[in-house]
Design goal:
The protein is mainly α. The protein has 15 helices and no strands.
Amino acid sequence: MKKSLLLAALMCTSFYLYGQDKKTAEECFKKADYKCAEEQYSKLAEKEQIQKFQSEYYNNLGTAQRRQGKITAAFRSYESALKANPMSGSVYANLASLHSQKGSKAKALEYIATGLKIEPENPEFYLTRSKIYDSQGKKDLALNDLKQILTFAPDNIFAKTGLANLKKNNGDLEGALKDYNQLISEKPESLLYNGRADTYFKMKKYKESLADANKAISIDPKFAQSYVSKALVLFDTSKPKEACDNLDKAVSLGYEKAVLAEYYTKCAKK
């Protein structure tokens, strides 16, 4: 009887400590402390015996590493996540996104094709594929993927933003601006203000662009892309020091520094 009680007590203690580790990892991620998140998720992944949960931890570990610019480590973690659970749509989505970002478009499309067989209504696959198609000049296919999202997720803000971005990328700045004005009137979110900031930037309306970037930051101070948008305006208005400070802020919030390498060449070496 005493042994049973002792065993039960040890199990309860173990579950409590394990739960605390998971909570700590989640809190680190929310605070954009990706080094802390990496350490915690690494421990969780190594200890976890249930493959589904182990896959989830490796997946989060990969994202924490990716946010720190540790691309090789992120690839390894995502592959470990996939090995632990080959039916995880989110892992396929992350691998597709990372391969696309690194220029391996064909590999990204392979992961998307496989992922869609598992989760045919996962918006991430269509969003990533739309960007790939757009970069390849396949505008109709890019448009079709965004419209497909709206058939099963009519309020998906990323799909709606993507449609406005397609217009912007194709030179229809006035059309994109009109779309962003409408979207912001319906739901004033940081993502939308940032999108309109980029549209104004391309129109060389720097005052309006800077105002929208600042508005996006005021709504969500942890939205890294807005600091990048603000930096671009500051570079073009001859304020390189402020611009570089904003790049640093974006990186501290998880924006991959390697993607900003071209802009960092404009920053004075410290």
